[in-house]
Task: structure prediction
Amino acid sequence: MLRRILSYGLLAGLIAGGVLSLIVLTVQDAIPSGYSMAIGYLTMLVALSLVFLAIKRHRDRERGGVIRFWPAFGLGLGVSFVASVIYMLSWEMALAISGLDFADTYARAMIEAQRAKGASPEVLAKLAADMEVFKAQYANPLFRLPMTFIEIFPVGVLVSLLSAAILRNPRVLPARQE
Result:
């Protein structure tokens, strides 16, 4: 089962992290928009669909077509964990290669969004101070790495829950007889 966790997790992480890296390396200084967030989470869902495939393959090949919820959920969490680590490392690598100062870009985008909404100078000053704190925190890898990890891991938990709940029923997508 460890081999399945590592192989499916690595593949899922490479898909999600590869798309993330491609976006960072090609659109370096663009301000993130709702579309880029939607593309990012859609990519995560596509990549983490491998959780479902890993559980199904394990159920059909090693478990005789039957798997209980908790073993299926555990397998899904394992795949999600490995994928999240690969995603996190991909983000770090993309930042190092591109030289992108994500925290500064994000801070400027947040301030500009509030300015466009007509925020008062006091609100903008408070936000600017908060963004300076964020930039200092984000420069610390002990802050940045867990933040990147939790971008994708909760999605993996949800996919694992749904996959385990669906695939515990042996009548759902039964194994084909050879």
User: Anything to note?
Assistant: The chain has a mean pLDDT of 91. The longest helix spans residues 69-98. DSSP finds six helices and no strands in the chain.
